[in-house]
Write a structure and sequence with these properties.
This protein is an all-alpha fold. It is built from 9 helices and no strands. The chain has a domain of 98 residues. The N and C termini lie far apart (42 Å).
Length: 252
């Protein structure tokens, strides 16, 4: 029991550290700022943060959500993203087990979390995230090269459909970033699961956005990235079980 708790604690700690880096990406990428070379600093007084100001979760709690120097409020986004990413890593390891493939899925979930926030705010999915996810898919393929056809079909089946839709509607129905996202995630999931992911994302997006338009008078423009990411996450974790359940209902 002790070693299990320690193992999951380590996974969570790794998750929140990566979550801290995701905050940097979420803040700087839309502004076209460097995410590596520029030192972390207070957005109000430009105070360069020390290493002890950058401990995920704990620094925020210790400083009570304020800058050490000027006392300006620090956005609660920082601990929320860190904690969320840590929990996502725990969820992946709990469901998928502890192996190299699970590490790939942890990194996938981190990418989906960051790009979802950016797309929600800007209606744009930075291409770097899609390239990174595609690289994860290539690594996964290298670990199981026998399933190359499943991987290839996964990259094409949904993205090709969306590309045709994009051309027909001249970009009004779907964004180019969403097409690339489905292609990249298809490399990770294969054709069956990426189709399931797309269906789940569309259903979740339709329900949530209708509610948003009714409650908060949200605009009709829909950022699909977050909803497609939800679909990918669900399909990655429980897709096989959902497909088996659906097939059993159909009696096939």
């Amino acid at each position: 029991m002790f070693w299990s708790i320690l193992f999951y604690l380590i996974i969570f700690l790794f998750g929140i550290v990566i979550g801290s880096f995701l905050n940097v990406c979420i803040l700087r990428i839309p502004l076209k700022q460097d995410i590596v070379k520029v030192s972390s600093h207070c957005m109000s007084c430009d105070y360069k943060l020390k290493w002890y100001d950058l401990i995920p979760l704990f620094s925020y709690l210790f400083l009570k959500g304020r800058c050490r120097k000027c006392g300006a409020k620090i956005s609660p986004q920082y601990p929320i993203i860190e904690a969320t990413n840590g929990c996502l890593w725990l969820l992946v390891i709990t469901v998928k087990g502890a192996d190299v493939e699970s590490l790939l899925y942890c990194l996938l979930f981190s990418s989906l979390l960051a790009l979802s926030i950016i797309d929600w705010r800007t209606y744009e999915i930075p291409v770097g995230f899609n390239i990174f996810i595609a690289c994860l898919g290539i690594v996964k393929l290298a670990l199981d090269i026998r399933n190359w056809l499943n991987t290839l079909l996964g990259a094409l089946c949904v993205s090709l459909f969306l590309l045709i839709l994009y051309v027909i509607t001249k970009g009004r129905a779907i964004g180019g970033g969403d097409i690339k996202l489905m292609a990249a995630c298809g490399l990770m999931l294969g054709w069956k699961l990426i189709i399931l992911a797309f269906c789940i994302g569309c259903i979740v997006g339709a329900i949530v956005h209708v509610i948003r338009m009714k409650v908060s008078k949200a605009d009709h423009v829909l950022a699909m990235g977050p909803y497609l990411s939800v679909g990918v996450a669900v399909a990655a974790l429980w897709g096989e079980s959902l497909l088996e359940w659906y097939i059993s209902i159909l009696g096939i």
